[in-house]
Design goal:
The chain has 5 helices and 17 strands. About 20% of the residues lie in helices and about 30% in strands. The protein is α+β, with helices and mostly antiparallel strands. It folds into 2 domains: about 110 residues, Gcn5-related N-acetyltransferase (GNAT) (Aminopeptidase); about 130 residues, Aminopeptidase. About 45% of the residues are buried. Strands 1-2-3-6-7-17-8 form a 7-stranded mixed β-sheet. Strands 10-12-13-14-15-9-16 form a 7-stranded mixed β-sheet. The chain binds coenzyme A.
Length: about 290
């Protein structure tokens, strides 16, 4: 690592209280995001490792964090890492600090034997030099299936302690929502995203499966994620929620829903990028569920 006058480079667990405060301060100042809301759920992802430059006062000047993001891709488990919280304070940009932390994080991922590294960005050109390639994402649109079985349902609130504890338990033991592409574990980011999505509904179906969904303004049904040991059929989900929507949009590959929608390209401004040695990429259309974004 090259020397940087007045700065020191450190890497270590994101969950270390001093590191967590400093990295959260950087995210607050650069993105106006309060990552410390995660403290109510027990803190950040325990697998997170920060690669960062600090000034003499302990202020985090530049950071990128790597965390375990095990994935299922085309039915196989992929030992993947995610990169998040990448930023440099405006006062220190253009001097190579981001390159330093990216190179350190990628060297770590390679040394730890990760088969793939994944990130989400609105500036994909920044990552091509590190061999990241963009992956197209799709949503799946179609008509609502009927004739499902209605099971009991109750609404959960992520801000309520008992509901958050139940959610965490189900998240830790979940089955991937799709066989084509889905995280095996993404507990902290699900809880964080759920807090930040005010119109997200979390309905507990049959006491063991959470349906994460939104009601579209046009009478449609947007299915964002399913958290449970089994993935129910879409027809059973709609019957249990007692809704007959005008249309359905599923935000992940629906291969486990006993329903087929038309794949529609594009999921917004953020580009999903993947870096692998073996040229791994999902064979069929897919998307990272919005609740798993990081
Ligand atoms: C993007 C950001 C981290 C870059 O920080 P920086 O300190 O300017 O980066 P560096 O000086 O280390 O530049 C590394 C390289 O990236 C290039 N680069 C920097 N910003 C870029 C951009 N927006 N698009 C494309 N390339 C960019 C630089 O030219 C440099 O190239 P070089 O190695 O060939 O000289 C910083 O501008 C930032 O924090 N922006 C706001 C938050 C953000 O966008 N984070 C990334 C989210 S995925």
């Amino acid at each position: 690592m090259p020397g940087r006058r007045g700065l020191s480079f450190r890497s270590g667990p994101v969950a270390n209280p001093v590191t967590w405060r400093a990295v959260a301060g950087l995210l607050e100042d650069v993105f106006e995001i309060d990552a410390t809301v995660l403290d109510q759920f027990g803190g950040p992802d325990p697998t997170g490792v920060s690669f960062a430059w600090f000034d003499a006062a302990g202020t985090c000047i530049a950071n990128i964090s790597a965390f375990d993001l095990p994935l299922v891709m085309d039915g196989a488990v992929v030992h993947a890492a995610g990169l998040q919280s990448g930023a440099v304070r405006p006062s220190h940009r253009g001097r190579g600090l981001y390159r330093d932390v990216m190179e350190a994080a990628l060297a770590h991922c390679d040394a730890e034997g990760f088969e793939a590294v994944v990130l989400l960005t609105d500036t994909p050109e920044l990552y091509a030099r590190y061999r990241f390639e963009p992956l197209a994402q799709h949503r799946f649109a179609g008509a609502a299936p009927t004739g499902g079985r209605a099971l009991p349902v109750r609404r959960l609130e992520v801000g309520r302690k008992a509901d958050a504890a139940l959610l965490r338990r189900l998240l830790d033991g979940r089955r991937p929502v799709s066989d084509r592409f889905a995280p095996l574990r993404q507990t902290e980011m699900f809880l964080f995203n759920a807090l930040l999505m005010p119109d997200l509904r979390l309905d507990l179906m049959d006491e063991d499966t959470v349906i994460a969904w939104q009601a579209g303004q046009d009478g449609g049904f947007d299915l964002l994620d399913i958290v449970g040991g089994e993935i129910p059929d879409l027809a059973d989900i709609l019957a249990s929620l007692r809704i007959a929507p005008a249309r359905v949009l599923v935000h992940f590959a629906p291969d486990r829903l006993a329903w087929a929608g038309k794949a529609v390209a594009g999921t917004g401004d953020m580009v999903l990028m993947l870096r692998t040695k073996r040229g791994l990429r999902p064979a069929k259309p897919f998307a990272l569920p919005p609740t798993a974004e990081f």
